[in-house]
Design brief:
It is a single chain. This protein is an all-alpha fold and 144 residues long. The chain is 81% helix and 0% strand. α1 runs antiparallel to α2, α1 packs antiparallel against α4 and α3 packs antiparallel against α4. The radius of gyration is 18 Å and the shape is flat.
Length: 144
Amino acid sequence: MAYEERNVWASLIVSVLGMIAYVVIVLQQAAGGPLTDVDWVPIMLWIIGAGIVGAIVVSIVWGIVAGMFDPDGVGRSDQRDRDIAQLSTRVGQAFLVIAGLGVIILCAFEADWFWIANTMFFGFALSSIVGGIASVIAYRRGLV
């Protein structure tokens, strides 16, 4: 597995787990009440921070383990990796645009901050996850 592909997998795994954790924690905090009453800001910030740190740690540990088995292949990337990263970025940006439009619409209707922030938060998460899936598919099946 290529260096860049390992990083994509690390980010993908951490993103999915982070989103699941966020939803579970917010639903537990709501305890059947309105979601807008949940103190979501610290939860969101901790999930974002843990996601960044988690992706870095998983990538480093995975790289160390991979380096034990293939010391020559660690850290190498080529034109194919750059093309796949560009594809992933394009696919992911589409979801950021959709989330941004959703935020604008929610602002126009003066929705609660909870819904506005979560729309953008899940837009970023969906962008990361869908972009990661596009990368994995490109690595496995090719770009064409």
